[in-house]
Design goal:
Blueprint: E1 9-15, E2 29-30, E3 33-34, H1 35-46, E4 50-55, H2 58-66, E5 71-73, H3 81-92, E6 100-103, H4 113-118, H5 121-125, E7 130-137, H6 140-144, E8 150-155, E9 164-171, E10 182-192, H7 193-201, H8 206-211, H9 215-220, E11 225-230, H10 240-250
Parallel strand pairs: 1-4, 1-6, 4-5, 7-11
Antiparallel strand pairs: 2-3, 6-10, 7-10, 8-9, 8-10, 9-11
């Protein structure tokens, strides 16, 4: 058990300027603040632990620190967000005080802070190595949209703490088959520290390469991913249209 508390949990937000569809995305202005600052603010509002931006570019670190946040520079050539948070964690906590780590994407400026706390719950309720979130949907467009990742989950019975289960697979295909909802995966993760360090040391796996989904590396190496079912999908900002929607929501 992690017994995750605000004293032994850290929220790390990996961020870098390179973006194919929306250049300089972390610094995009949303109602007078850079996007990365909005994400930092949502993480602070969650009150789940220390918040650090793992910046691949000095301009990101400067933007965060100019607004009172904490940032640490990471190697801009690291291949993934999980690599970035692993490096940041080693630099800010060599004494290994933090045992629960939340990986919060830097393009979720409208995320409900409550979701950031919820992603920690599967670590204990399902005794998982990694925790994540899903939302049920019966929308046929979402079912068939390969840009929307679906989680195949073995859910447990409901209890007063919520609805939890273990992920069996993640896919861009419409799964599971048959009547009923599919579960839209929300790309925010909580890790036990040992699990994060093990995950980051593993090479990309065959299914990860095929589906282009990093979390499959964990499942292919027998790590458990616990899932909490929630009711809302935060807006991820990858395009100018989504950026304008974020401005509308936050304005």
């Amino acid at each position: 058990m992690t017994g995750a508390t605000s004293s032994n949990c850290v929220i790390v937000i990996p961020s870098r300027l390179a973006s194919m569809r929306l250049p300089n995305k972390p610094l995009a202005d949303i109602c007078g603040l850079p996007m990365i600052v909005h994400v930092w603010k949502r993480a602070m509002e969650a009150d789940a632990g220390r918040v650090v931006v793992a910046a691949g570019d000095q301009a990101i670190a400067d933007a965060v620190m100019d607004h009172g946040g904490e940032a640490i520079m990471t190697d801009p050539n690291l291949p993934s967000g999980s690599d970035r948070i692993t490096q940041a964690l080693a630099r800010i906590d060599p004494e290994r005080h933090y045992q629960a780590i939340v990986n919060l994407q830097g393009d979720l400026p409208t995320i409900d802070p409550a979701l950031i706390k919820t992603v920690l719950k599967p670590l204990d309720h399902v005794d998982a190595d990694i925790g994540t979130l899903v939302v049920a949907t019966t929308d046929p467009k979402e079912r068939d949209d390969q840009s929307i990742v679906k989680a195949v989950v073995a859910f447990r019975d409901n209890d007063s703490r919520g609805i939890f289960g273990k992920a069996l697979y993640f896919t861009r295909a419409a799964a599971p088959a048959g009547p009923g909802p599919v579960f839209h995966h929300i790309g925010i993760y909580a890790y036990r520290r040992a699990a994060l360090e093990r995950f980051a040391a593993l090479p990309p796996s065959p299914l990860e390469r095929r589906e282009k989904l990093e979390q499959l590396r964990a499942l292919e190496h027998d790590m458990t991913i616990g899932v909490a079912r929630v009711d809302t999908v935060p807006l991820g900002v990858d395009t100018p249209v989504q950026l304008n929607e974020a401005r509308r929501l936050l304005g």
